[in-house]
Design goal:
The complex is a heterodimer. By secondary structure, chain A is mainly alpha-helical. Chain A has helices spanning about 5-10, 15-35, 40-60, 70-85, 100-120, 125-135, 140-145, 155-170. The longest helix of chain A has 22 residues, at about 15-35. Chain A is globular. Chain B is mainly α. Helices cover about 75% and strands about 0% of the residues of chain B. Chain B contains six helices and no strands. In chain B, helix 3 (about 30-45) crosses helix 4 (about 45-55) and helix 3 (about 30-45) packs parallel to helix 6 (about 70-80). The chains are: A mainly alpha, B mainly alpha. At the A-B interface, helix 2, helix 3, helix 5, helix 6 and helix 8 of A face helix 1, helix 2, helix 3 and helix 6 of B.
Amino acid sequence: MVPDEHLVERCLAQDDDAWNELVARYSRYVLAICTQGYRLQGADAEDAFQDVFLRVYDRLGSLRDPAALRPWIGQLTRRVCLDRLAAGKREEPTDLEPEGIDATIEELDDAFAVREALNELPDECQEVLDRFFCRDESYRMIGEELGIPSGTIASRISRCLARLRERFADG
Amino acid sequence: MSYDEERLGELLRKLPPAPEGWVRAAQELPTARAALDDLVARAEADAELRRRILTDLEAALAAEGVEPSSALLADLRTRLAE
């Protein structure tokens, strides 16, 4: 996987493939902050999501430490969500921080790290773990989609989780 | 850092995929931004075009082949107001 600092460098050189990769890498994280951290839903969540990536695109050149891309995007996302919550209200954005938001972000940071470790696993493990845990697909659905007997899905998930644990501990 | 399998599963569940359309729209930002820059440049040189764009921002963006997200609409509105 391309390190964030190289990804930023390539984005700043107007490499569209790098931008596509950056969006793909951070889309889940941004969405999770919007929806789980700030409880934005529907059109509000979508508007915030697009606004975050527009700001990232416009301000990427101002990022002092490209290796700190994740916390920078996290902060930008928090700012965008707060601005959206504050729109039409009298409160200062800082008064609108949901209770426990720091703990939620910390949890999402851990989730992001696990996701990064998942991306280092073979495709078959990425696929089955993503479908089961992230897309909430049943054994039957996974079996049909991947063309493998549904009776073997549980053991594959178990085996892939063990590999993920090893990979994550190493990383 | 080390987690057991149950905790890893719990953390994986925290990051479901964003809707494909949202991701695609964000990935198309460089193209959208270029189209926006071109539109603003033309509007600055043509008062009638600028007026028409301000009358219907969504239609103006759509005519340029840009999916009009609220962020891009706000950006276009701001730039034309400057």
